[in-house]
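The authors assume throughout that readers already know how a fold can be written as discrete tokens. For illustration, here is how one protein appears when written out as sequence plus structure tokens.
>
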Amino acid sequence: MELGDVLGNILAGSAVAIVVAAIAWFVTDRFTRQQEAAKARHQRLLAAAEELYSVYGQFFATWKAWEFARGRRRDNKGTVATEIRQALLTQAAQVEGRYESLIVRVALEHRLGVADRTALWSLRFALKELRSAIRDDVPLGWWRTDDPASPQEHAGALMYSAFKDLTATVASILVDADTNSPPPTVADRSAALAAITATLSPEDPSRGSRLKRHQWHQVSTAHSETASS
């Protein structure tokens, strides 16, 4: 074999090796970047879930403080000092503000279906119940135990149960999200945010009509029944 042929084979082999190495580097680099992006997104999801848990805790702390200061009798008005009531009203408003911020975050980063939007919408209005109760100087009226013989306590128990279910559903949207799924489009983000913050519930083909904000627990109940059937 002549020297030129030898050099040609060497150069050809080197070129193949370079191409293979470049392809391997490209694939490895792309995979690494995807893994890093998925890890970063997972960390953001966990941070968002932590914020939800904190909002939940602040809501309960404010609720229990209001209940302790006022009592559960609806006719027991005017017994809470103005400064205490104002402080608790501020705390309840902070709960809502933190959840509103979380809604924007979720709407921008997640691909949300109708059920997801409905859960976020429902929980938004559930959290508003406490501020309304403090403003109107009435108890929240939610109960852990159900008493079917008492219409008022039965309704309160249903609301309390719906609130718990909604919190779990919204948490699942965050912690169970697919970190490799493509992000929503700009149009999807705008539509999701508008639907979640609207007065009426998001469009739901399973219902005959959209519900108003004070019916948030009925939306939750309907979705829970659909999911379990």
Remarks:
- Helices lie at 3-70, 82-109, 114-136, 151-175, 186-196, 216-228.
- DSSP finds six helices and no strands in the chain.
